[in-house]
Amino acid sequence: MLFMMLPARAQSVPEHTRLVNCPAVMELYLPGDYYFCIGGHRLADGYARAAIDYFERAAGWGHKRAQYVLGLMHFQGDGTPSNRPLGLAWMTLAAERHDRDMDAALAYARRHSSKVERQRAEHMLAEMWPAYADEFTVRRAATRYERETRDLRRATARDPFSRVYIAGLGQGSASSMLMRMDQRADRFFDGARSGDVRLGPLEVVDEPRALDHGDDMKEDGP
């Protein structure tokens, strides 16, 4: 089972277990978030191979939780044949931002790995670095997010109270929708991006209606 080997402080609940739906529109704005969400549902449904494919796609957009879960799955052989060096490489990438849980998982895994496994992990990490490290993925993800939110930011600058609709996310004032999306982006980037980037096809709503957040953005628990 995932997380069974970890020290207590590293046994955080994967983010995907708190997500109810994965709005397709998020693939345009925050693809890492979207692919991780889909991967979480595939894993929960018992399709580990499909989950790994989605987690790898999320990891390519700098999603640290996806890299963390990939590390655990490969290191422990959870849903895939055990490959401890590959698991170590993924966990090293996940720990780039020094999250306490991810640091603890990496330290534990390294202590329980052989010298040969750690050396193999270093070689794998060197090959994976250009595709998955923050210095490459964060810039790409932030540029995409900024480009796709440009229209919403312009609408907010013109009239923050204008009503807009974003497919899959609902409607509200331009400023409230922008704030909602930026909060989600801040959780995704977790301080890794430099500068502010602020989403995508939107429509002006003629008749204001009560904002319906819908189920797409719900989270279980506080």
From TrEMBL:
Pfam families given in the database record: Sel1
SMART domains: SEL1
InterPro entries attached to this UniProt entry: Sel1-like, TPR-like_helical_dom_sf
Domain of life of the source: Bacteria
Protein's name in the database: Sel1 repeat-containing protein
Gene source species: Lysobacter arseniciresistens ZS79
